[in-house]
């Protein structure tokens, strides 16, 4: 995937988008509509809306955009579906009251703006959904809440109860207290983890662009209607936010989020807020990520997609086969070299001799201890270095094959 730093706004270039849609209809070979119909019938849905499509040109929250979205979501809720709305926009909503013209760069002012804006955002949602007879609630989460078992279970219990009570939980990252190191920043991956948490039937990511294109769409790209696995986007030029100073993750984090969901058994659609009604009706809009994996434990989900990798172990061919095909633990005998600086328990990558990463795992030894263990059997290590060296380098339960 190529990263770019484009600075246009495809949502404002309908002509290019329309032409691209016509072209992709003509050239698409795959059955685009595939399982999109699922969005029409999904009982439990996570819908994420980004700052780009909620924000007016002046930088604050657009009342018009918010009301139009709420109309669609409330109708769906009133038809019986359970809905979670993951909404960005707290920082944008906090700008005007603080006399700020644009999104602040420093973390402390972003935290302050989010603290001011979150309440205002919720007031608007409460009123707009209330007009349809729908009750909303505020749920602020940090990455930690979704990674630690006890907090995960706690968040699940609360959200599940809210859904059973007919409430639409409005989720955002707890920007005011989220620490810099593990802050999501964008809400795309947060939405994928929430979808996983509540075992949603599908996830919809709404933005200011109607689909993922083979390059940033203001350059007149071609819509990618269907993604069946990461390889389908290997040639695409996926870029950052086209609305500098408003949206955060751009298409990169939406692709990551959709891959997280689809890879753990939840199909995902990326489209525009303007297409929300069509999307929920199962129409052929946006980019559909069909399921390509099954549900993982939260810990392995984190390891596969979110953990920050501290080092790399290079495996010989036998170890690659053992890990990838026979689903075995990684033993010291199959490792040829070690890269990086890590401690026991840290996430590392496992790569083959050509450097292709085949798995991720939690390592049992530090980068300081490992070099003298390489290529040696666990029995030999136990007798020469002591019993504590008899264990696997990465246990199969702490390993995800990619
Ligand atoms: N290949 C691509 N296809 C579609 N959009 C792209 C692509 N590359 C970059 N983008 C940009 O990603 C933007 C959406 O991300 P972002 O602004 O972060 O939205 P949000 O605030 O809704 O999360 C689009 O406006 C578009 O300019
Ligand atoms: N939690 C932040 C979201 C930041 C943001 O811009 O996210 P996104 O629009 O999803 O790229 C907020 O509410 O302002």
Topology:
Elements: E1 2-4, H1 14-27, H2 38-41, E2 44-49, H3 51-54, H4 63-78, E3 82-87, H5 90-95, H6 107-130, E4 136-141, H7 149-164, E5 168-173, H8 188-197, E6 202-207, E7 226-227, E8 237-239, H9 250-263, E9 268-272, H10 276-280, E10 287-289, H11 298-305, E11 311-315, H12 317-324, E12 335-340, E13 347-351, E14 357-362, H13 378-385, E15 399-401
Parallel strand pairs: 1-8, 2-3, 2-6, 3-5, 4-5, 6-9, 7-10, 11-13
Antiparallel strand pairs: 9-10, 11-12, 13-14, 14-15
Helix pairs in contact: 4-6, 8-9
The structure holds adenosine-5'-diphosphate (ADP) and the ligand N[C@@H](CCC(=O)OP(=O)(O)O)C(=O)O.
Task: Give your account of this protein's structure.
By secondary structure, the chain is α/β, with parallel strands linked by helices. It folds into two domains: 13-296, 3-Layer(aba) Sandwich (Carbamate kinase); 307-401, Archaeosine Trna-guanine Transglycosylase, Chain: A, domain 4 (Roll). 34% of the residues lie in helices and 18% in strands. The protein contains 13 helices and 15 strands. The strands form three sheets. Strands 4-5-3-2-6-9-10-7 form an eight-stranded mixed β-sheet, sandwiched between helices. The chain has a five-stranded mixed β-sheet with strand order 12-11-13-14-15. Helix 7 links the parallel strand 4 and strand 5 (168-173). Helix 4 crosses helix 6 (107-130). The longest helix has 24 residues, at 107-130. It is elongated, with a radius of gyration of 23 Å. The two termini are 16 Å apart. Mean pLDDT is 86; it is low at 1-33. The structure holds adenosine-5'-diphosphate (ADP) and the ligand N[C@@H](CCC(=O)OP(=O)(O)O)C(=O)O. It catalyses: L-glutamate + ATP = L-glutamyl 5-phosphate + ADP. Belongs to the glutamate 5-kinase family. Residues 1-33 are annotated as: Disordered. GO terms for molecular function: glutamate 5-kinase activity. ATP binds at residues 48, 207-208, 248-254.
């Amino acid at each position: 995937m190529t990263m770019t730093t484009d600075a246009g706004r495809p949502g404002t270039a309908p002509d290019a988008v329309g032409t691209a849609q016509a072209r992709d209809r003509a050239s698409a070979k795959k059955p685009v509509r595939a399982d999109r119909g699922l969005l029409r019938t999904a009982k439990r849905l996570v819908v994420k809306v980004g700052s780009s499509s909620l924000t007016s040109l002046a930088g604050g929250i657009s009342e018009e955009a918010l009301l139009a979205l709420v109309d669609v979501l409330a109708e769906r809720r009133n038809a019986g579906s359970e809905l979670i709305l993951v909404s960005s926009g707290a920082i944008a909503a906090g700008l005007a009251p603080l006399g700020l013209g644009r999104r602040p760069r420093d973390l402390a002012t972003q935290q302050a703006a989010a603290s001011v804006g979150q309440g205002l955002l919720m007031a608007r949602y409460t009123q707009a959904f209330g007009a349809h007879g729908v009750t909303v609630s505020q749920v602020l989460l940090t990455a930690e809440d979704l990674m630690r078992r006890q907090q995960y279970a706690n968040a699940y219990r609360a959200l599940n109860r809210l859904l059973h009570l007919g409430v639409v939980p409005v989720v955002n990252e707890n920007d005011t207290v989220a620490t810099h190191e593990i802050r999501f920043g964008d809400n795309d991956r947060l939405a994928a983890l929430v979808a996983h948490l509540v075992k949603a039937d599908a996830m919809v990511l709404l933005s200011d662009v109607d689909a993922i294109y083979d390059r940033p769409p203001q350059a007149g790209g071609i819509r990618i209607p269907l993604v069946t696995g990461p390889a389908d986007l290997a040639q695409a030029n996926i870029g950052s936010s086209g609305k500098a100073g408003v949206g955060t993750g751009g298409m990169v984090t939406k692709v990551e989020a959709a891959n997280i969901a689809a890879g753990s058994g939840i199909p995902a659609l990326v489209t525009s807020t303007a297409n929300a009604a069509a999307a929920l009706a199962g129409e052929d809009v946006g980019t559909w990520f069909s399921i390509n994996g099954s549900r993982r434990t939260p810990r392995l989900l984190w390891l596969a997609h979110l953990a920050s990798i501290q080092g790399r172990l290079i495996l010989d061919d036998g170890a690659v086969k053992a890990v990838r095909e026979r689903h075995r633990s990684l033993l010291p005998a199959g490792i040829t070299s070690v890269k990086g600086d890590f401690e026991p328990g840290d996430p590392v990558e496992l790569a083959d001799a050509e450097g292709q990463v085949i798995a991720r795992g939690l390592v049992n030894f530090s980068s300081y201890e490992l070099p003298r263990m390489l290529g040696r059997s666990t029995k030999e290590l136990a007798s020469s270095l002591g019993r504590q060296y008899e264990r696997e380098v990465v246990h199969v339960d702490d390993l995800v094959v990619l």
